[in-house]
Design goal:
Layout: E1 2-9, E2 18-21, H1 36-48, E3 66-73, E4 79-82, E5 85-87, E6 101-107, E7 113-122, H2 135-144, H3 156-166, E8 173-179, H4 188-192, H5 213-226
Antiparallel strand pairs: 1-2, 1-3, 3-6, 4-5, 6-7, 7-8
Amino acid sequence: MKLKKVILHNFRGYSRMTEIPIDQLTALIGKNDVGKSTILDALDVFFNKNKMEIADRNVHCREDDVVIGCVFSDFPDEVLLDETVPTTLEREYLLNEEGFLEVRKHYSASGKERVYILANHPSNEPYDCLLQKKNTELKALIRSADIQQEVNLSINSEMRVALWNSLGESLALSKREISADKEDAKNIWQKLVGYLPRYHVFRVEGPTTDDDAVAQDPMMIAVKEAY
């Protein structure tokens, strides 16, 4: 996947929801202390699971969640959300209104992390939370809709799609955050982590030589990734 946009809210100097577009080559230019390094540090927290420090919270928004989000393009054609049966992010309605994967991490005042996918998702009850339902619950909904003859009851992704398709033109989509880090088989985020791009921060202060860590570390990371 490719990083397309960074979203910051209440992180250090970014008190308002701020979106920073990312392209093949992105340069951050500005005076000291305007928030350039903050963007890079936020990405380090997002990708490398570094704990967000209390001091990283914006001083004017102590009670609100800190949000660090990333929008991705070039996601895989198929992903595994249920055991070994592949599906797609599009079929599961896990893409935003622009057709991209948007992941937002929320950090409470205690620093606890919660992961959401902001998506244009079905809002018809009780089909608005199918991704959190287990096989037995999906089967019950399938039988209630009387479409058990049309779908393989052993494949959760097929049942979800069949239920949504059964709504026909009455299917309603709305922009909403889908919980993606449930502590069970429905932990969508853990299924997607392996598809994320690699991210590393290397800091350089002043002149360096080939023997310095700032020169050697990038090569060590590149070699490690290659193997």
